[in-house]
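Suppose you are handed a protein chain with no further information: no name, no annotation, nothing but its sequence. What can you learn? This example shows the usual starting point.
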Amino acid sequence: MSKHEYIIEATSRANVGKGASRRLRHQNVVPAIIYGGTKDPANISMSHNQISRLLENESFFASIITMNIDGVNEDVVIKALQRHPAKPRIMHADFQRVDANKPLHVKIPLHFINEAISIGVKASGLVAHLMTKLEISCLPRFLPEYIEVDLAELGLGESLHISDLKLPEGVSSLSLSHGESGDLAVVAITAPKRAEEPTPAEAAAAAAKATAGKAPAKAPAKAAPKAPAKK
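A reasonable first move is to predict its three-dimensional structure. Written in structure tokens, the prediction is:
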């Protein structure tokens, strides 16, 4: 189970609504909700500085988090995060309680390895990351921090799909549960685009267009005749 030292100190809150949430944000506090399991949803709040520091860790999004609410611990995972559109501010967070006997549905980061030594890159190909996270299903004890995608044997013009990934024990892809239509491409190596040389007719047309707008050169002005010298 991907369980780390991630602990959030939270406080229950009774006041809800836009006005109450706005007042909390002015105090550098983030309103949040915790739901799931056999308990009713609970409105909570936490320090903005605390949650901001935790969000700097990629593994935080794929970990079992200890939520300490008024001194009582609960295991949760983060499900949604609302950020300010223009400022580095967390506006709201959603957490889901973890049941050890029920599967989790979470998005796990993909780590791409061996890009530089892949067959396609050695042939001057360009790597295109088509997915950066994979939505999976697993019991909490099987939750991985990330899933590796090995590009070593990927050739030029080839791609890897979800079905090509080696998923850890106890982990399945939610996309593949939809059948072949859910077997999306994860990464591809494409050939670099080359500028096509113009045909002789295209080159002549371009030259004519470039000179069409130019004014004809003026003839040099004739010098005025010199007056005869006085005797």
